[in-house]
Every structure is written in C-alpha cells, then in structure tokens.
Amino acid sequence: MTHQILVTGGAGYIGSHVVRQLGEAGYDVVVYDNCSTGVAIAVLSGKLVVGDLADIESLYRTFAKNKFAAVLHFAASTVVAESVAQPLDYYANNTRNTLNLLRCCQTFGVKKLVFSSTAAVYGSPEESPVSESFPTIPINPYGRSKLMSEWMIQDYGLASELQYIILRYFNVAGADPAMRIGQFTPNATHLIKVACEAALGKRPSLSIFGTDFPTADGTGIRDYIHVEDLATAHIDALRYLQTGGKSRVLNCGYGHGYSVRQVIAKVKEFSGVDFPVIEAPRRLGDPACVVAASDEIRKLLGWKPQYDRLDEIVETALEWEKKLNHTKSSFKE
Ligand SMILES: NC(=O)c1ccc[n+]([C@@H]2O[C@H](COP(=O)([O-])OP(=O)(O)OC[C@H]3O[C@@H](n4cnc5c(N)ncnc54)[C@H](O)[C@@H]3O)[C@@H](O)[C@H]2O)c1
Ligand SMILES: O=c1ccn([C@@H]2O[C@H](COP(=O)(O)OP(=O)(O)O[C@H]3O[C@H](CO)[C@H](O)[C@H](O)[C@H]3O)[C@@H](O)[C@H]2O)c(=O)[nH]1
C-alpha cells in the first residue's frame, strides 16, 4: 500500500529536497505550503495544496480529503534577526501554527510526526560537540518558538499514541547534486549561500562576523550538513516510526565543523574568484563553536551520510547559485 504523507513547508529549501526523496522512495506526498518563502516549482513530487497553517479550515479540509499515515512538519519562519524584530509573528507562525497542526493530527488520528527543530534551541553551548542532553537555553525568539513546539509535541506524545522524531538540524547548506532544486531564498543570511553570492558578484563583499573567537583561526566554527543528507535522515526517521520506533529527539549534523575562514577559502577555491572579505565585529549572540554529537541518529536510524565533505557542500551550493543566476526569471512564480 502506498503511504500518504503530509509535508508542511514542502515548497521550501529543505522540505523540497525531502519531498523529492519521498517521491523516489514511493511515498504519495501532499505538500501544504503558503508559498511565502517556498516556490511551487520546487515541489517535484506529489500534489501541492497552497494554504496557510493559520487557516484552520483549509488545514482541516486537507486532512479530511486524505488519509495521512504521517506528517513531516517543516513550515516555519526561519530568520533569527527577523524573530528578534517581530517576535509575535514567530510565536504565531512557529508555535501556534504547530498547535493547529497537532490539533488536526489529534482529530484525524495521525500518529506519526517528524518535526524540523534547530540547534538554535541550545543557544550558546558552553562546549562542543553538543549532545541531545545538553541544556536547551535558546537566545532568540526563533529558537524559543521552536523549543516551545518541541515541548508541545512531547507533551502531546505523552498524552496520546503520537510517536515523533524531533530532528535538531545544525547548519544546513548545499543543493541537490543533480541541480533540480536548491535554496531559492532571497536575502539569505546563511554563510555558505552568502559567500556563493559574493563569489558570483551578487554581493560586493562578505563580512566575517568576529575574528577574535577562541578557535584556531579566530572565526566561528559550525557543523555544516548537506541538505541531501539531511533529507535522507527524514526518510530514515519516517521508516523508523513506521516500523514501530519510539519517540526521540535527535541531532542532525556530521559531528565535525569548519571555521568561517575555511568556508570562505573553499568558496574562493571552487569559484576561482577572490571576492573582497571584510573583518567585522561579532554578531550578537554568535557562539564560537557549535558542532553536533551525531552518534544517536546514526545508531538509532542507521543514517549514513553520503556528502560529508565541505567540498561537496560548497560545490553544489555554488553550482546552484549559478543556475539561479542564469535562469532567474524562469524561477519567478
Ligand atoms: N535552513 C537551516 O539552516 C535550518 C536550520 C535549522 C532548522 N531549520 C528548520 O527547517 C525548516 C525548513 O527551513 P528552510 O530552511 O527550508 O526554510 P524555507 O523558508 O525555505 O521553508 C519554509 C517553508 O514553509 C512555508 N511556510 C512558512 N509559513 C507557513 C505557513 N504558515 N503555512 C504554510 N506554509 C508555510 C514557506 O513558504 C516555505 O516553503 C524550518 O522549520 C526551519 O526552522 C532550518
Ligand atoms: O555573512 C556572514 C554570515 C555568517 N557568518 C558566520 O558564519 C557562521 C555561520 O553563520 P550562519 O548565519 O550561516 O548560521 P548560524 O550558525 O548563525 O545559525 C544557523 O544555524 C543554526 C543551527 O545551528 C540555527 O538553525 C539558526 O537558526 C541559523 O541561523 C557564524 O560563525 C557566523 O558568525 C559570517 O561571518 N558572515
């Protein structure tokens, strides 16, 4: 029997890569997305319902029309600085709308959920690697809105038959190696996308936020995970739940990191462009080093990353950025 899966936010960067892999794995996918940051052309499998999670009637209609075996919940607002300026929008979209979704799961008897959480729930961890048992002390409304969602899911899981996997993503980057999809997001703030834009002349320069961290070269270290490997983790999580696996919170990272200077050097190497780099002060709240302890996800889900090299992350991110450049107008909705 084909399993029908609801994917909220499936037209977005990460969700669209998962939707493509779900299609390849034989799942019947329904994407529910308001296309606020996502784009319809990124949905390469299944059906797209254009709807907002805040629109409870539309959401109920979607559940009523289908028979979902599981829900993968990606839809969210994701920009940290915006969450500081517009906190209520973040609690509404990330926390309240997750509640709407859980209500639908309750009403329609959906008992499997995979949720997109973030390493931002750890805040500024005092040491790395960061394991799942580290204290969760988010330092911005984005992280708090996601942590509150985790709590709702966990509480509802305790009170019902819901089994869930909460995946805490570290720094997601790269694109589909076959270049069918990638990150469309305009005005991106993530280092690798910003560096690729600088290399292609879409930005005049790149700023390094802080060169005085207690790291080998003074710049921040992060655990960059290829979006294709992250997508596979979702397929693994779904299979785990469908074969009776119990609820868990899992980090999603490789377990090693790269500094800002290392990333910049790699983007310069692959692009062949020596774009200007400005040494700027630290960004408020940026920790020195955030690297995932990733043994749990490997052990529990049997997750086997295929693209665990900065070369492949940067190469695909850069190729995608070039493609976006050349065919910009055709990507407009
Ligand atoms: N990109 C990262 O590095 C990263 C890191 C950690 C966690 N995450 C989480 O992963 C998830 C996906 O992030 P992304 O980078 O793909 O972002 P994205 O903005 O590309 O995707 C989010 C998708 O959700 C949709 N959406 C937003 N609000 C909605 C609503 N109210 N109703 C329906 N659809 C709505 C958007 O249109 C978009 O398609 C998010 O939950 C985010 O918090 C991302
Ligand atoms: O133009 C830039 C952009 C980033 N950085 C540096 O590059 C590193 C990575 O920064 P990103 O903005 O790419 O990502 P963050 O680590 O700040 O955080 C991101 O990944 C987290 C998961 O670890 C959360 O999901 C969070 O919401 C999301 O913004 C940091 O040291 C940052 O200071 C720069 O020097 N210049």
From TrEMBL:
It catalyses: UDP-alpha-D-glucose = UDP-alpha-D-galactose. The keyword NAD applies. GO terms for molecular function: hydrolase activity; UDP-glucose 4-epimerase activity. Gene3D superfamilies: NAD(P)-binding Rossmann-like Domain (3.40.50.720), UDP-galactose 4-epimerase, domain 1 (3.90.25.10). CDD domains: UDP_G4E_1_SDR_e (cd05247). Its EC number is 5.1.3.2. Residues 5-253 form the NAD-dependent epimerase/dehydratase domain. Pathway: Carbohydrate metabolism; galactose metabolism. It comes from the Bacteria. Its cofactor is NAD(+). Keywords: Carbohydrate metabolism, Hydrolase, Isomerase, NAD. Homodimer. Belongs to the NAD(P)-dependent epimerase/dehydratase family. This is UDP-glucose 4-epimerase. It comes from Calothrix parietina FACHB-288.
